[in-house]
Structures are given as C-alpha cells and as structure tokens.
Design brief:
Blueprint lengths: L1 H16 L3 H19 L3 H11 L5 H24 L5 H7 E3 L1 H12 L4 E5 L5 H11 L3 E6 L5 H12 L4 E4 L3 H17 L9 E6 L10 E5 L2 E5 L2 H9 L3 E10 L2 E10 L9 H16 L18
Parallel strand pairs: 1-9, 2-5, 2-8, 3-4, 3-5
Antiparallel strand pairs: 6-7, 8-9
Helix pairs in contact: 1-4, 2-4, 3-4
Length: 305
C-alpha cells in the first residue's frame, strides 16, 4: 500500500515542483486555507506551544502569531517540494549566505579545519543546506532520521543530496565522523593532502530526545530536554561549533548567517555548549516566532524531580 500511495502522489509532487514561483505561492495560499480553516492541522498543538512560550502575550497576539505560522508552514511545505527541480542559480537567488558566513567557511577550509554547525527548524533549513553545499567548499554532512515509508524516504533523500550534501543516520553519527577523521589523518600522514575532505556536520538543535540521558534546561519559558550528542561529539573531537540562523527576508527569500559559539569545545564544561546553542536558538525564535516549527510536540516530556 505504501508503494501505491507513493506512485499515485509522485506525479502531483513533480507537477507542484515545476510550478513558477508566483503560481507556487498562489497554491500555498490555498494550502494555508486548508490547514488553518478546514482541517485544523495540529492547531491545538501550535496554540498550546505558543501560549506557553509567550505567557506575556495577549490572546489576540497569540492568534495572530498562530495564523502567521500557518502561512509560513504552507510556503515551507511547497518550497521543500520545489527542491526536486530547482536550479542552482534559482536556489542561490532564493536562499543566500551572507559574506561573514562565507568568509568563516573559507577560513576553515584553508586551515583544513572541520566544524560542527548547529541550527533549528527556523526559516527554511532544507534550502539552507542546499545553499551551503553549493557555496561552500566543505563537504556538508546532515544528520537525519529515515522516514518509515521507504519510497518517500528515498525521494526526500534525493532532494536533500542533489546539490552535494551527504546524509548520516543519527545512530551512525559519531562512528561516521570518527571514520572520516581517521581517514583524513591517514591521508595526511601518507602524504596525500589532496584526499583530505574538510567537513561541516549539521545538527538540528530542536529535536525532542528521550528524557533519560538528555540535558535539561529552560527553553521558551519551559523545561526542555536537549540532545547531548552535539555537545559530546564537539568536545570529543574538539570541532569548533557554529550556530547558523536562517531568516526569512520576505516570502520565498531566505538569508543564512552564522555566529561562532565555541572555538575550543574540549575546554568547556558539561552542559556549556548545550546552553550556548539553546540560548542562541531561543533568541532567534523570539525575533520572528512565526517562522519556527511550532507544529511539532517539543514539550511532550516532563522533567523528573
């Protein structure tokens, strides 16, 4: 049945993908109406997340934010489908990286220094990874969870890798990063510097980890578990940690900016890096809260006493 549903949907997915942007966003307006007014997709989850995150806001302000989020979500869903056929030039027109970020990545590449990128589900993170792979000389590795539907998983995999990004399953992250680090060290030792692959590994900071073993902190006024994997890997490998922000400049256009969070993770104490990227993400969300992914159940776990 999975295969039947996939192959029935595939022609419509490609049809949406080849639409010119003005028509794509007209369709997004219709999708917004369906989600917000007709189906009420996760409307209760979105409302509760916003209400608890912004206790200082009035009911009118929360409702306005909720509606603005759904408008963005409709755009985002169709923009992701657009990735199937978008050209390199169009990708760079609609999602660009600022000069400061490009210079920072150029510096790391010249120094043959690997790094860790931390970002959240803010703006259009899918387009951001594509732009990074086109603009930067580093090999970008993205951490992902495979979908349960193998057919749609393959489709999404192809969309995410078509501009050069490599995907790593979350469960294999540390193993694969160590393997690549050892391979680079071997090439360097045997006089094969041209084989060295300078990497940037991207971690999404706002996933929901199992409560046991997570780092707990306060995020958007609420007790929140944070994956410790980003911090633990950064400290073990001593890779600089950079926070990447994706801001929505206007409809259909995004800007990637970056900030160095930690140049020497090995010298940090436990929880320090997790606090750094959590505080930075919270700051970015509060600037433009409508562009964060409020529809996921971020606060489904309760902190143990």
């Amino acid at each position: 049945m999975q295969a039947v549903g996939f192959y029935l949907a595939l022609p419509f997915i490609y049809l949406i993908s080849i639409l010119p942007f003005p028509i794509l966003y007209l369709l997004a307006d219709f999708v917004f109406i369906l989600m917000y007014y007709v189906t009420g997709y996760r409307k209760k989850v979105v409302y509760e997340n916003l209400r608890k995150s912004f206790p200082e806001k009035s009911e009118k302000e929360i409702k306005k934010l909720q509606k603005e989020f759904y408008r963005h979500l409709a755009d985002l869903l169709l923009e992701i489908l657009k990735t199937l056929t978008i050209s390199r030039s169009s990708m760079l027109k609609h999602c660009r990286m600022d000069e400061k970020s490009i210079e920072l990545m150029e510096q790391f590449y010249r120094e043959k220094k690997d790094c860790i990128l931390v970002l959240g589900h803010l703006g259009n993170w899918e387009w951001a990874s594509n732009t990074f792979s086109i603009v930067c000389k580093q090999s970008l590795y993205g951490i992902y969870h495979p979908l349960t539907n193998n057919h749609f998983n393959s489709l999404l995999f192809g969309m995410r890798t078509r501009f050069g990004t490599t995907l790593i399953e979350m469960k294999n992250t540390f193993r694969d990063m160590i393997s690549l680090k050892n391979r680079n060290a071997s090439d360097k030792a045997t006089g094969q510097p041209n084989n060295i692959r300078v990497t940037a590994t991207a971690f999404i900071a706002d996933q929901t980890p199992p409560p046991e073993g997570a780092y707990w902190t306060t995020f958007m006024t609420q007790d929140t578990p944070v994956f410790q994997g980003t911090e633990k890997i950064a400290r073990k490998l001593n890779y600089p940690v950079i926070f990447m922000s994706i801001s929505k400049v206007k409809r259909g256009y995004y800007l990637i900016s970056s900030e160095m969070l930690c140049e020497n993770p090995a010298a940090t104490s436990e929880g320090e890096i997790s606090e750094m990227h959590t505080r930075k993400l919270e700051k970015e969300i509060r600037k433009n809260p409508q562009f964060w992914l409020w529809s996921h159940k971020r606060w489904k776990h309760i902190r143990a006493n």
